[in-house]
């Protein structure tokens, strides 16, 4: 892995080539972006591309979704100079929380939670995750923020697949992702 190479021409999404395919089977996502996060320019360009549609928008806080969304969310929050809220799997916080059940991309039933004192009515939250496949995880995060009176200022992910859940989110919220239109069918079909 060459963490120093930066292409002479950096088109939106150039860093997607840094992701590695799944070699461990169906219990894992089909691509692993962790190598992208190791590449300094790749991570910077990915975050810049995710945030570009929100330039000038009112955003009070960035929330990242457990677990890989924590990486992108924290990087986005630092770039915007905003606070970061972790929305995680239930059972890890020792403070009052709000919980929401959901089904993840693999079809497993899970529960997500966030601390109740972090979101106040009217707080504008940018939700960030690594990937939106079926939309179940992101919809649970949206439900939690809105239940506490927050406003979803936008949704950002490396990829938002053209699934029923992905379309539901894109029809209702301002969204940003890094996959160029010419590559979207390949990502939707997991090839």
Task: Report on this structure.
The protein has 191 residues and is α/β, with parallel strands linked by helices. The chain has one domain: 3-Layer(aba) Sandwich (Rossmann fold). The strands form two sheets. A seven-stranded mixed β-sheet has the order 5-6-4-3-7-8-9, sandwiched between helices. A two-stranded antiparallel sheet has the order 1-2. Helix 2 crosses helix 3. The longest helix is centred in the middle third of the chain and has 13 residues. The two termini are 21 Å apart. The mean pLDDT is 92.
A few lines on this structure:
The protein has helices at 34-38, 40-51, 68-80, 136-147, 164-172, 184-188; strands spanning 20-21, 31-32, 61-65, 83-89, 97-103, 109-115, 124-132, 151-160, 175-177. It has 191 residues and is an alpha/beta fold.
Helix percent reads 25-40%
Rounded radius of gyration (Å)? 16 Å
Query: How many domain regions?
Result: 1
Q: Regarding quaternary structure, how should these chains be classified? A: single chain
Distance between the termini: 21 Å
Examine the secondary-structure arrangement and name the CATH architecture: 3-Layer(aba) Sandwich
- The average pLDDT is 92
CATH class: Alpha Beta
Strand order of the largest sheet: 5-6-4-3-7-8-9
User: Order of helices and strands, N to C?
Assistant: EEHHEHEEEEHEHEH
SS field, number of helical segments:
6
Class of secondary structure makeup: alpha/beta
**What is the tally of beta strands?**
9
Approximate strand percentage: 25-35%
- Biggest sheet architecture: 7 strands, mixed
Uncertain residue segments: none
The 3D shape can be described as globular
Write down the CATH topology.
Rossmann fold
């Amino acid at each position: 892995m060459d963490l120093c190479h930066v292409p002479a021409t950096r088109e939106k999404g150039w860093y997607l080539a840094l992701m590695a395919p799944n070699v461990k089977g169906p219990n894992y996502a089909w691509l692993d972006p962790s190598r992208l996060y190791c590449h300094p320019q790749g991570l910077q360009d990915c975050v810049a591309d995710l945030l570009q549609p929100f330039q000038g928008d009112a955003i009070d806080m960035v929330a990242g979704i457990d677990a890989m969304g924590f990486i992108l969310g924290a990087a986005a929050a630092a770039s915007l100079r905003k606070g970061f809220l972790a929305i995680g799997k239930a059972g890890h916080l020792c403070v009052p929380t709000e919980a929401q059940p959901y089904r993840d991309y693999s079809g497993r039933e899970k529960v997500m939670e966030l601390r109740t004192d972090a979101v106040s009515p009217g707080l504008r939250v940018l939700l960030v995750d690594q990937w939106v496949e079926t939309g179940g995880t992101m919809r649970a995060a949206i439900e939690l923020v809105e239940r506490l009176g927050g406003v979803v200022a936008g949704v950002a992910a490396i990829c938002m697949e053209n699934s029923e859940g992905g379309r539901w989110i894109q029809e209702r919220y301002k969204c940003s992702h890094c996959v160029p239109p010419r590559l979207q069918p390949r990502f939707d079909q997991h090839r």
